[in-house]
């Protein structure tokens, strides 16, 4: 197997497993451990994984945000409940921003009953899902494409956003610590902040596993959102801290 195919194979395996040891990867792909180390170095440099002692991981950390495809698989049922609750905040005829996050991105497939709508997004999955859909005016934000985040970022993205206005914006975040949202990537942070600045109402959608975590870059105080949606009751001390800070939190429970 050539190096490009093997590295893609490593990523495909990590999408399912989350972590893998060098020994396991060497055995799986029939190469030396030194070759695996070189592959992991290349993938880490490109931002697709992080090397850990004895192997590699695609799971997020304070400095690393996992690949979009991996994030799509995490807490999938909870994210669908959050998306269903979020669309109740939209009225036909409005202009809606959807960010790059896998949680906010789940809204796209639920917009048909609310047409006509204008949708602004830098999320390639959202753009592909809504392209050509009747009753949806789609504004696809350009910029530099990130394979890792499956979206567009940078100065072009931000300049385009600054020329627009929206009724409502739906955002996701990789970590919630205290009453603040954080993210590992500074370009992603800047794009999200610009989305918030051009929207009249702002909602954050985060699965319950994001609470109690932190990441490198401060995104915003949670009070900047009209409501923070999550899919499961939080630990009492976490909920008390949010309530004490004046954060509006909506828990979208499982009806079963």
UniProtKB/TrEMBL annotation:
GO terms for molecular function: DNA binding; DNA-binding transcription factor activity. Gene3D superfamilies: 3.40.50.1360, Winged helix-like DNA-binding domain superfamily/Winged helix DNA-binding domain. It holds the Pfam family HTH_DeoR. Residues 3-58 form the HTH deoR-type domain. Keywords: DNA-binding, Transcription, Transcription regulation. This is DeoR family transcriptional regulator. It comes from Mesorhizobium amorphae CCNWGS0123. The lineage of its organism: Bacteria, Pseudomonadati, Pseudomonadota, Alphaproteobacteria, Hyphomicrobiales.
């Amino acid at each position: 197997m050539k190096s490009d195919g093997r590295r893609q194979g490593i990523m495909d395996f990590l999408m399912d497993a989350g972590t893998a040891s060098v020994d396991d990867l060497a055995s799986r792909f029939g190469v030396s451990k030194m070759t695996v180390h070189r592959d992991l170095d290349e993938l880490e440099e490109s931002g697709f994984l992080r090397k850990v002692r004895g192997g590699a991981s695609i799971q997020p950390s304070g400095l690393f945000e996992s690949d979009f495809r991996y994030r799509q698989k995490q807490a999938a049922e909870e994210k669908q409940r959050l998306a269903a609750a979020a669309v109740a905040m939209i009225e036909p005829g409005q202009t809606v921003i959807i960010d790059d996050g896998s949680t906010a991105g789940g809204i796209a497939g639920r917009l048909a009953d609310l047409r006509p709508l204008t949708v602004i997004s830098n999320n390639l999955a959202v753009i592909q899902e809504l392209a050509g859909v009747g009753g949806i005016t789609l504004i696809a934000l350009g910029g530099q494409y990130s394979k890792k985040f499956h979206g567009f970022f940078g100065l072009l993205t931000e300049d385009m956003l600054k020329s627009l206005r929206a009724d409502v914006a739906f955002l996701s975040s990789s970590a919630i610590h205290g009453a603040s949202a954080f993210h590992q990537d500074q370009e992603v942070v800047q794009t999200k902040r610009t989305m918030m600045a051009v929207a009249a109402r702002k909602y954050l959608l985060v699965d319950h596993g994001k609470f109690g975590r932190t990441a490198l870059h401060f995104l915003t105080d949670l009070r900047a959102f009209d409501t923070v949606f999550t899919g499961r009751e939080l630990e009492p001390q976490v909920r008390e801290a949010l309530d004490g800070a004046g954060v509006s939190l909506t828990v979208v429970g499982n009806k079963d």
